[in-house]
Amino acid sequence: MQVSENIIYHIGSAYLVIGGKAALIDTAPRGGEDALVRDIAEILSGRPLDYVILNHTEPNRSYGLSAVLESYPDAEVIATVAGIRNLKEMYSRPFREQAAKDNALLKLGNGAVLRFIITPNLSWPDSMVTYEENSGTLFSCDLFSEGENLMTYPDYVENALKRLSELKITAVMPADSDVLRGADIQTAFDFYGGLLDKYREWEKNKTVLILYSSHYGVTREMAECIRAEMEDAGVTIKICDADKNDAPDINTFSAIIAGTGTYERGAAESVTRVLCGVNAVLMRHKPFFTFGSHGWSGEGANILHSLLVSFGMKPFSKPFTSIFNMSDETRERLTRHAHKFAETLK
Q1: How far apart are the first and last CA of the chain?
Q2: Using CA atoms, how far apart are residues 341 and 225, in angstroms rounded to an integer?
Q3: Whether 21 contacts 42, CB under 8 Å
Q4: What is the distance between the alpha carbons of residues 333 and 312, in angstroms, rounded to a whole number?
Q5: Burial label, 308 (beta-carbon count in 10 A; 0-12, 13-18, 19+)
Q6: What per-residue confidence (pLDDT) applies to 10?
Q7: 207 DSSP 8-state letter
Q8: 110's torsion region: left (phi>0), alpha (psi -120 to 50) or beta?
């Protein structure tokens, strides 16, 4: 399907831009490579394919590269520096290469000019977008295809939107959704703007999550003790019983306190399941500690501790545990412990 004078929609998420020279933007996923090459040959009608541009190297974009290069071995592959490195690791074949520089132009002739805009982490570290200046067409990679998934890196999204808003965009060709034109383009920008506003509010959130599971009530008692002391110290607390399946989005909190008993030398599945939702980018370096009551062995709180360390969160202390019921001395120590944690958050 032809979508402009110089730009022809191809198969899947690939596009062919034809000026004096021809450039393929992205390729095809596994299983689509034969149809991709067949359609390129039909459109080019014996003309060479001069460039293969990969906005990022995720296999559903780049898998067809080998098949394309089998038919067009002289085509020059253009990607970011990280993208070129990835392609060499992913596809064991030599190819002509050109590393795309930010804001660099590629003149195809007959008025077709491509501009490369590096957009790291949207959604891969090697990502970029390609803009055809004559028609105002933006080949946007995962931008305008994905929403929440890109918000792991809100600063990168904000920078990309600022740069792209300065372009005269008449059409957006996302990798995995419909072509955008007219008012739909501004609607898409507004959608991302709304997501950014939401994430900025999350960044301002100073609420601490206390998440726990308690079979016999002692770990719950410990959680309430921690909450009371931290609230007295002026900290906003959200307390959640993981066994009731009503856990909020764990990545919106400024700190995490997680409690569990020990069950067959393991941690409570309900708490572990919630903690596995920690985003290792958004929550990196945020503080935490773990706690819990145990009987014959006490591995549960240690397992939660190790899990959160593996996500890059910052431990305030070793796990705080109580053997069976809390004694008056243990309660006093836990109160002091919670108070010290509250002080560090201030």
Answers
A1: 59
A2: 13
A3: no
A4: 27
A5: buried
A6: 64
A7: P
A8: left
> Is residue 47 very low, low, confident or very high in pLDDT (cuts 50, 70, 90)?
very high
Angle at 213 between CA 210 and CA 216, to 5 degrees: 125
Percent of the chain with pLDDT over 70: 97
Q: All domains of the chain, ordered by start, with CATH?
A: 7-202 (3.60.15.10), 206-341 (3.40.50.360)
16-36 confidence digits (pLDDT tens): 999 999 999 999 989 999 999
Say which amino acid occupies 68.
V
| DSSP single-letter state for residue 182 | T
Q: Which residues contact 339 (CB under 8 A, 6 or more apart)?
A: 229, 230, 233
Q: Indicate the burial class of 263 (C-beta count within 10 angstroms; 0-12, 13-18, 19 or more).
A: middle
Q: Which residue, 157, 253, 278, 155, is CA-closest to 203? A: 253
Over the stretch 192-228, which tens digit does the pLDDT of each residue have? 999 999 888 888 889 999 999 999 999 999 999 999 9
Residue at token pair 């998440």: 211
* Residue 283 identity (one-letter amino acid): M
Interatomic CA distance for residues 283 and 160, integer angstroms = 22
Contacts of 225 (CB under 8 A, 6+ apart): 326, 331, 334, 335, 338
**DSSP per-residue letters across 45-99:** TTPPP-EEE-S---HHHHTTHHHHHHH-TTPEEEE-HHHHHHHHHHS-S--EEEE
Tokens describing residue 310: 């593996």
DSSP code of 326? P
